[in-house]
Amino acid sequence: MKLICQTSELKDAIMNTQRAVAVRSTMQILDGLLIEANQDILLTGYDMEMGITCRIPAEIIEPGKIVITAKMLSDIARKLPGETVSIEVDDQLKVKIVSGKSEFQIKGREADTFPVLPEVAKENELTMSQATLKNMIRQTIFAVSTDEQRHNLNGALLKCAGNLIEMVAIDGFRLALRREESPVELPNLEFIIHGKALRELMNILLDDKAAITLYTTMNHIKFHFGNVTMVSRLIQGEFMNYDSLLPSSSQTQIVINTLKLQRAIERSMLLIESDNLRYPVNFKNEDNVLVVHETTNVGILHEEIEIDISGDNFDIDFNPSYFIDALRAVDDEMISINFNGQVGPCVVNPIEGDKFAYLIMPLRR
Amino acid sequence: MKLICQTSELKDAIMNTQRAVAVRSTMQILDGLLIEANQDILLTGYDMEMGITCRIPAEIIEPGKIVITAKMLSDIARKLPGETVSIEVDDQLKVKIVSGKSEFQIKGREADTFPVLPEVAKENELTMSQATLKNMIRQTIFAVSTDEQRHNLNGALLKCAGNLIEMVAIDGFRLALRREESPVELPNLEFIIHGKALRELMNILLDDKAAITLYTTMNHIKFHFGNVTMVSRLIQGEFMNYDSLLPSSSQTQIVINTLKLQRAIERSMLLIESDNLRYPVNFKNEDNVLVVHETTNVGILHEEIEIDISGDNFDIDFNPSYFIDALRAVDDEMISINFNGQVGPCVVNPIEGDKFAYLIMPLRR
Questions:
Q1: Helices (H) and strands (E) in chain B, counts
Q2: Across the beta sheet with B84-89, what order do the strands follow?
Q3: In this complex, do A101 and B303 lie within 8 Å of one another by their Cβ atoms?
Q4: CB–CB of B165/B177 below 8 Å?
């Protein structure tokens, strides 16, 4: 194998594909990146659950393929001095990397033992902008359960039908729902994507209108955008019936500044010294004021934030970190919070429309 | 005690004084900051080796003093919502911190048990710009020994006489010397300042011409600049006689681009997998080229950098991290390196003048 390509393009491709490289695996080959040189270069990282490939242009002098330890390759690529880089592999799998007046020689590994990514047929196609999908992930991912006992909640549900796309995550204590309207009629689809795949995808996606296309089969999903492709195993099983969880009415509704409430809860958390101790943050109203109150072994915080209120008075305790995750995900300046007494679910909504809904269960006293 | 001050000024004062707060001490009071309110506010952090005080203006409604856990105070100050903050302490040492519509109540501690900083008489005075001292520290601090067995090398020597100031650090394998000329006649002084004190000072000092004044007694040094004062115990004992270490001539002299050499050594270090294994980097010349070579269990790096050379050919091994520390401290685009064979000391100098000298011992084969 021998090729010449742009150093910066190689660097970006390594950064993207490295996200799918296995960190600790019994299959040692999986800590490497597969480089395949044909018309161009295809880099692949794959941990048997999720695979990422990235294609970049190159001058191919001799086609071939090789596996190189991802960390070593990435460290070297980041520090290469020249604008272009030449990679040459000999029969003994010795890899020569030359850039400027710098020449590395490292050992490569047999590419034939690198596992092949699953094929995903071009069916069940769905296209949207990268920015939209990135936002939908960002605004729900925190509520994906990390409890391995609840396997089918370890991902987010992506559901589309008519002209609506929904992404939903539930961890048993809270729910995050994000809704987008589509200008075109969508296929009827419903599948659960692993939290890890969504997180890595969120980190690669651009904040712009460039398109991303999804294809799904029974077992896998494939994301294709720019020069990147990601394939991930889908989570099998039923997702929780979340429609029934969201209350249709509320006993109290308030409208409040998102950032003011977020900052107040952040301050209340300063008084919680250890993650093990769970001190609730208390919300109650005094006329048109929300009183945020926290008492721990360290001290007391008392805050007041102006609100518009309709409905009953309230006096409710929450896990502050659950509440703050939802508030940090919201981009709206003002939000509506709907309380249902001391034990009923609390729901954070936009003031207009139904783009998002965050359900948080109060803590019992 | 009751006072009102600017939140941002309090925040900065906490950040500065917190650097002297003891992290793990048998004296529990030392994890706190002393706040004293009289005409203004004086904050003090002190770990019994080094003390930092910072003075800020305030409206003092009731004078007094209190000790508050530094971490808690700093966390709270950074998140206060208002432009001003009021701090009020009652008879039970309960501290009320109010800013905007946010009110914290935390427990304070008796100020009387906080140890008093040592007095440093205004003798042996030396004044320079903050930027100059900051640079002198930055360009020598890496060579301060961390070997506690070599107590008098755990700091840098500051020496002045005539119109010369020198700062020198030695760790047994290398030496860093930094020289500054003064426009005025200086007192004859020589003392060893703790590495930790220098490091914290470097982080607080500004990159500008604002003045810093030093006073020393037998046992202590006091730095006074802006609204900050730092007091540190001096290291007692003899410093190594470094003049005799620096060779007066050299067998080979090369002139090389600092950054090109730095980057080449950084690349060579990519092949060193573990800090425990010490693979030397090899320098040798081929006509007007420096060949940088590294061979480890992982691979080989070969680089070529153009040089001007006079004197003998050379072929020498170095600890790459020792060499790189010196190169990273140099601001000059081009440097002169003076070799003295495979075992003699190597010295990095400016091309003109004698502002700095970095001596690095080669590794024996």
A1: 6, 24
A2: A315-318, A281-286, A289-295, A299-306, B102-107, B94-99, B84-89, B2-6, B59-62
A3: yes
A4: no
A246-360: in CATH 3.50.50.60: no
Closest CB to A104: pick one of B105, B106, B299.
B299
The CA distances from residue A92 to A33, A88, A193, A254, B218, in Å, are 18, 11, 41, 70, 67
What local confidence, expressed as pLDDT, does residue B276 receive? 58
Task: State the nearest Cα–Cα gap between B255 and chain A, in angstroms.
Answer: 18
Residues from chain B that touch A79, judged by Cβ atoms under 8 A, are: 263, 266-267, 270
Residue A315 pLDDT exceeds 80: yes
CA proximity to A271, closest of A253, A297, A248, A292 = A297
Q: What residue ranges do the domains of chain B occupy?
A: 2-113, 126-243, 249-360
Q: Burial code of A312-322, b = ≥16 C-beta within 10 A, e = fewer?
A: eebebbbbbeb
> How many angstroms separate the Cα of B193 from the Cα of each of A49, B123, B158, B172?
56, 17, 7, 18
| Chain A residues within an 8 Å CB radius of B76 | 267, 270
Closest residue by Cα to residue A5 from A47, A57, A62: A57
Identify the helix (H) or strand (E) that includes residue A329. helix A320-329
Tell me the nearest-neighbour CA distance from B79 into chain A, angstroms: 7
From residue B346, alpha-carbon distances to B145, B258, B333, B336, B342 in Å are: 19, 15, 19, 11, 9
Contact, B232 vs B20, CB < 8 A?
Answer: no
CA quadruple B72, B77, B82, B86: dihedral sign: positive
Task: Count Cβ atoms within 10 A of the Cβ of residue A353 and give its class: 0-12 exposed, 13-18 middle, 19 or more buried.
Answer: exposed
**Which of B97, B197, B205, B192 lies closest to B153, judged by CA?**
B192
One DSSP character per residue, A264-310 reads: HHHHHHTT---SSS-PPEEEEEETTEEEEEEE-SSEEEEEEEE-EEE
CB atoms within 10 A of CB B16: 21
Fold held by B126-243:
DNA Polymerase III; Chain A, domain 2 (3.10.150)
Which distant-in-sequence residues (6+ apart) come within 8 Å of A287 by Cβ? none
In this predicted model, what pLDDT tens digit does every residue of B292-318 receive, in sequence order?
Answer: 999 999 999 999 999 999 999 999 999
CA distance A164 to A140: 16
The answer to whether B79 contacts A298, with C-beta atoms less than 8 Å apart, is no
Q: Which of B120, B201, B117 is nearest to B158 (CA)?
A: B201
Q: Across residues A284-311, what is the average pLDDT?
A: 97
User: Average of pLDDT values for A317-333?
Assistant: 96
Q: Residue B157: what are its φ and ψ, rounded to 5°?
A: -80, 130
Average pLDDT over residues A49-77: 98
Degrees, nearest 5: CA angle A300-A302-A303: 150
The predicted pLDDT at position B278 comes to 78
Q: In this structure, are residues B204 and B19 in contact, taking their beta carbons and an 8 Å threshold?
A: yes
Q: Which amino acid is at B333?
A: E
Give the pLDDT confidence score for residue A275 in this predicted structure. Answer: 67
Report chain B (365 residues): mean pLDDT per 10 consecutive residues: 98 98 91 97 97 98 98 97 98 97 97 96 93 98 94 96 96 95 91 97 95 96 98 95 93 98 97 80 96 96 98 96 96 97 96 97 91
Q: How many whole angstroms separate alpha carbon A301 and alpha carbon A281? A: 10
- Domain B249-360: assigned CATH number: 3.10.150.10
Local structure of residue B364 (DSSP, 8 states): P
Q: Beta strands A220-225 and A289-295: pairing type?
A: unpaired
Which CATH number describes the domain made up of A2-113?
Answer: 3.10.150.10
